[in-house]
Amino acid sequence: DEVRPRHVKVLVRSLVGKRAPRTVRHVYGTLRTMFADAVADELIVANPCVLRRGDLPGKIDKDPTWRASAVFTRDEVEVLLSDDRIPTDRRMLYGLIFLGGGLRFGEAAALTWRTYDPPPEPLGQLLVAHSFSVHSRTVKATKTEAPRLVPVHPLLARLLAEWKLSGWPAMMGRLPT
Predict the structure, then answer these.
(1) Which end of the chain is more exposed for a tag (fewer CB within 10 A), N or C?
(2) Distances in Å between the alpha carbon of 157 and those of 47, 75, 127, 175?
(3) Which DSSP symbol is given to 19?
(4) Strand ranges across the sheet with 148-152
C-alpha cells in the first residue's frame, strides 16, 4: 500500500523508449488489474494506477513496417480452414475473418443467421451491423457505427452452408432459426 501514482508514473516513464508502446501499455494494464484485485481483496484502499491522458504512449508499433509483412500465406489459410485438428467452430471463424471482406473479430462474432442472405447469384451477402465486445460481453454497434453489406466469397458460402447444416447444430444442440 506504499505505492503511489507518482511511482507508477516513474515506472511507465522508465519503460518508454526501452519497450514498444504496446508493451508499455500492457505492463501498465497488468499492474492496474493487479492493484484493482488488491483493492477488491481489501489489501489496499486505493488503486495507484490513475495515470492521466497522455501519460501512456500511443498505440503504435515500435517498428511501423512490420504489419505489412504480417500476412498469412495462401497455404497457411488453407490449413486454418481445412485441417481437422482445428475445431470446426474455429475454422468457421477463420473463414469469416479471412474471406469475409475485412471483418473484425467482434463483427464476425456478432453475426447471426438473420444477417446472412445466401442467394446463389451473383454472391450472397452478410449484413455487418453489430460487433461483440469482449470487454463488456455485449453486442454493440460496429466501430464505424455504419452498417455495411459484405459480399460472400463462394468458398465462404460453402463453409457457411456446411456450418449451418452440421457444425452449428452440433455445437448449439439445436437447428438454426
Answers:
(1) C
(2) 49, 20, 14, 18
(3) B
(4) 116-117, 124-128, 148-152
Residues 82 and 57: their CA atoms lie apart, in Å, by 40
Q: Tens of pLDDT along 71-96?
A: 999 999 999 999 999 999 999 999 99
Tell me the whole-structure pTM to 2 decimals.
Answer: 0.66
CA–CA gap between residue 78 and residue 93 (Å, rounded) = 13
Cα(93)–Cα(112) distance, integer angstroms: 12
3-state secondary structure of 124: strand
DSSP state of 57: P
Any bridge partners for residue 133, and if so which?
138
User: First CA to last CA across the chain, in angstroms?
Assistant: 54
